[in-house]
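User: What would this chain look like folded?
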Amino acid sequence: MTQIITAFFDKRSDATEAVGELVEAGIPRASVRIMPDTDVAPSREGSYDYQRDEKGFWASLSELFFPEEDRYTYAEAMHRGNIMVTATVDDDDAETAADILEEHGTINMDDTEQKWRSSGWSGYSENAMGGSSDMNEGRREESIPIVEEELQIGKRQVESGRVKVRSYVVEQPVSESVSLREETVRVERRPADGSIAAGEDAFRERTIEARAVSEEAVVAKNARVTGEVVVKKGVEQRNETVSDTVRRTEVDVDEETENTTPRRTARR
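Assistant: Here's the prediction, encoded as structure tokens.
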């Protein structure tokens, strides 16, 4: 299965960088589109007229798999000068593509659409094309197209949640008790009374040196791993039944002739 990942940017330079990174990530360049192809000055003449489609925004989205409401909003965004990037990717690459586009400053279209509405934009409205014509105006043939909608189901990726895990360092005071040994040197003078034989040893010069050694605490730190935080993502498949309505054109034909009762025939 493939998905179409869509993002909008304020600047073409941001969109171009995002496209380049998508290609570097292994997504084929042919699967990535940037619209419009060239810079278009933002329109200041009201909302986009998709029926007139003067710049082709509405028509350019016809090949992509968008609901009509989204197609109308996206055409309005390009009408206002925004740049759209789409990437048609496999399901396995969808998350990578979405992350790359988001890193380059995509626009939140839900918030943007709310701002447009607060400024007077009415959004998409389903306009029925109708009217009547009189064949007595010189035309010998008139046709009414019979149209029938088909329901198509696709997928698009939306963000449903996010978990951010951040590690940081804190300092905690600790204390430990350690026994230290310390030597001391004392000098004592004691009285003595006795005789000594006279000679050179009695008056020989002497020096006695005693060193005192003390212990001092030495601090060292050793880091060890006590645990880890693991972030995992799981994927689950679910089936969803999508219900909607499709339209078709039906034509009622009223035939009236002289001396007969009017007859109505319904045709598809």
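Residues 127-131 have pLDDT under 50 and may be disordered. If you want, I can go into more detail on any region.
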